[in-house]
Amino acid sequence: MDEEQKLEYELQRILDMVGNSDLSGMTEFSNPSNSQDIMQGSEASIDKSDKMLSLTNKNFQSRDDLIEAARKIAFVQGYALVIRRSKSEIYVVLGCDRGGNYKSRKVPLEERKKKSASRLINCPFEIWGKKKRKLQGFWKLEIKSLLHNHEPSTDMSGHPYCRRFSNEEIMRIKEMCMAGIPPRQILSSLRQSNPHLQAISRNIYNKKAKILEESLAGRTVIQALVDELGEGGFSYNIEYDQEGHLTHLFFAHPISIELSKSYPHVFLMDCTYKTNKYKMPLLDIIGVSSFNTSFYSCFVFMQKEEEKDYVWALEMFNKILGVHNQPLVIISDRELALMNAIRIVFPSACNLLCVWHIEKNILANCKPHFREEVDWVAFLSTWTDLIKSPNESSFDKAWDRFENEYKENAAVLNYIRGTWLPLKEKFVSAWTDEVAHLGNRATSRAEGAHATLKKYLQVSTGGLREVKEKICLAIEHQFQEIKTQLSSEKVRVPHRLRIPFFKEVVTHVSMFALDELYKQHEATKYGNLSSQCTGHFFKTMGIPCGHMIKDMKIQVLPLNAIHNQWRMDARLFNNDQHGSLDDENDQINSLLLDFKEKYEKLPILQKDDTKRQLSQFVGTSFPLILEPKIQPHKGRPLGSKKRNESSSTRREPSKFEIVEKSRKCSVCKGVGHNKSTCPFQVAS
To answer: Would you say 352 and 346 are in contact if contact means Cβ atoms under 8 Å apart?
Structure first.
């Protein structure tokens, strides 16, 4: 009796027993040596339905068809089937997902940090699928054991297999992950398409981890990051220490490079924190478009915030701008290391300081020295008048009054004199109004860019590769906004501007600049001009002021009267990922042609030496670079709550915020002390 005849005999015996409801001897069909293991669960039971048995009479076109049919029947009956083993185009073995035994590790259970459990109870259920050559390659189902040693499940969501995703759902998960959609929203979207989906959030996280592992393709995270930067047309550079750990990463998206070269006049620079799991500061350089909107110019992850780190970062930024696109104005806060780096790398640029940060620094350091709120308000008013001085002589007079008024408050006066007075040219209107800062005197634009970026990041525990991917999403969204606005404003003409004066500038100048110009035109028309023209508006904004318009005595404003920053007519963005490399490619092609021409004229030995050097250059492999070391934070300000490690991207409170929210002394209304330690407390 051959094997197929034996199988048919056993199959007929099973059918007879099922038909007679006689289950005695059914354990003989399974391996008798495993009878004790079989009874680890509840009493042994067999599928009494003839649905599974009926599959033995069918021919299946493919292996997948056979597996799908068997799993559907098992699912309805409360069981889940998984592939135990298989061989391509020969056979497949299906078993209950509770089959097999838990394989204990060397570490004892009581010493393990993670509490684990197992669903495996050595269930003996087993069916085979075989490809029959005699049946023209059809697949046939063969039954080895229909026994289960456990009760069927009433809710199949407890079985991992039932929480698997279909191929279509996996593709959707990949697309939504690339779009930066959070796992909980991914799961909600999948459930809308498939209300019977059994998956939970953990399955989404596991799938994301698997997608990430597949994308690495055996590479380290840093290797994959560098490869993607190169293949994506990014301009980038890296630095690493003697141990091979990454210390600096500079990268600029091709879109950002295109925008930076188109709008090179004003940039804002500021570091943001809590963006990556290595706790590396992220220097974010922000540009300003024709529409007075912001765009990301480049990003730099740095090990520290020292002068040499900033110099390295700005030198990379200078290279992507080129010698013909040097910035006129760079705005930052009072970060001395950054200010020194700006002076070294961009000596011709004017470095202005953020007036908002200055005000908040003064609040943090001066407010505690004022007992009454009215005195503090008066101090702020005096300070505001000081920094808004229109010229140097008026500033000198205002400073004399300031010194005389607060000579009794030595701490405040010494702080202002020592910290801010030496930098007055960087924030006082008398000097800043002579610079074309295009209306930017604060880094609030950069703060807004940080907030937008962190909405994309969502957590502060991502790696550099994940952060780079989220940054790309923000950049591409930003670029599309600018590109669409550029196209829209080129074809739209506001009704109020349909007058001869604006004939040459409409559809050629941004709406923001036209609005500012319209205000000046209206002031001229209705005689609302100041008695004397300071020229500050034209110098800072690049737009003719009301006095200039009045003196021009022209019917139509020429286009060249508007600063190039606000012009749209010469700009066209095509979203070419490699467009920023065109100039470099032209240079390389020119060098290759020169090299080929010179090579053909070389003697034989020099040709061999040249080919050897060229082969060495081409065959040079990229050094193995390790992930960055986790960097310590600068520290939290005095008085803030103890910081716990979390995935939040929300920054720690600044000193001025702590001052504003801290409890005040009942005597002097200051912070940092109470009634018993108040310096103004009169001794009894």
So the answer is: no
